[in-house]
Records
---
Amino acid sequence: MRVLVVEDEAFLAELIAEGLRRAALAVDVATDGPEALRKLRFGAYDVLVLDRDLPGVHGDDVCRHVVEQRLMTRVLMLTAAGTVRDRVEGLGLGADDYLAKPFAYDELLARVLALGRRARPALPPVLERAGIVLDTARRQASRDGRHLHLSRKEFGVLEALLRAEGAVVSGEDLIEQVWEEHTSYRTNAVRVTLSKLRAKLGEPPVVETVPGAGYRIAS
């Protein structure tokens, strides 16, 4: 799952981003409205965590852009104003959810994960295929009852492959979904991560390489 955090307080933005990355999400950060619009124009995000009070371009206008462009991005709006009227206004702009500051990080994470499940055609929070069980809410994975100790990127790659339901996922799509915008050597990182993931999944091999196309989970 790929998330864009837009928050003008740089320290808070990075704090949120690092927390989400620990949950195996790919997270980019913007600290003002124009930067947020640029990233939304060139990146496909599942969830947008959006501070309402932004410099340059107001958060309300960023939210309107998401709605007007019909982006497949769910919006979680953050604001220090938490009255009923504020929540109604935020949701009326097209936001999918609303969270007042200060907030508990666990609640933020739960809301982001819930919105992420709705960003594409709905799939259950527990994904299963070829003996693999991936619980996206608890961030747990197993194969044939054996618990898998996966890194954040390994978990993200496995989730992307399982969500494809047997379809081929290209290396470029894996990069788009799992890696942050400014990660260096991302193409090589995909190969390395897949090699480690295959080793942890064990025998018989379940992640297939489709030459010239990408990767898929065998049925």
---
Amino acid sequence: MRQELMSLPKTLAEDVSRNLVMVARLIDEDPEQAYAYSRIALRLASRVAAVREAAGFAAYATQKYSEALAEFRAAKRMTGSVELWPVMADCERGLGRPERAMAMAGEPEVQKLDKAGQVEMRLVAAGARRDMGQLDAAIVTLQSSELASNAVHPWTARLRYAYADALLAAGREDEAREWFGKALEADKDGSTDASDRLAEMDGVEFVDALDEDDDDAEAEVDAEAGEAPGSAATAKDSEDEDRTSEA
């Protein structure tokens, strides 16, 4: 990216760089704000491939799939790289065109991807199969040497998780539990919610600690006021009993 920005005047390059930094910083926690910064960068330097790519990812994060696809295509034309091929296919899914995503999975560009890119393309293809109601085919799509390997890579947890989720959707709960467990083992950075899915399958319910604290605080207030919870009703019952005795 730095090499690309060097083609711009220094002041302009600095402005574009600042906006791209904000896109990268905010895209996960505040995608709408990241998108706004990406539009500024795009207005400043639309002929820079890195800017088009960043704008594509910002649009993708805000589910503006048509816009994202256009930006990714522009970046691909500028660089000649196929690196964005899987996310372009996923944009087709987002636009309700899983058949196009499947067609892209069979194109020669896939063979030019590195291992991570090929795994990503497999995940997209499996998702497209599920979009089309082909659940068994989605499961088969995910079955691969990468899935069977015991080696852990940055994409391993997501691949195992997708496989477990597909198995669960097919009603194969025992296998799904096994693969959610394997996904959890590989998930060093918390990229999936495999632990929550396992707990849900085992019927474990999580209690919000904040709610418990609120209940404790209310009980303390009642105690300080000289009333235990329900004491008002008890006092009223006692008064009624006294009236009955006097009668």
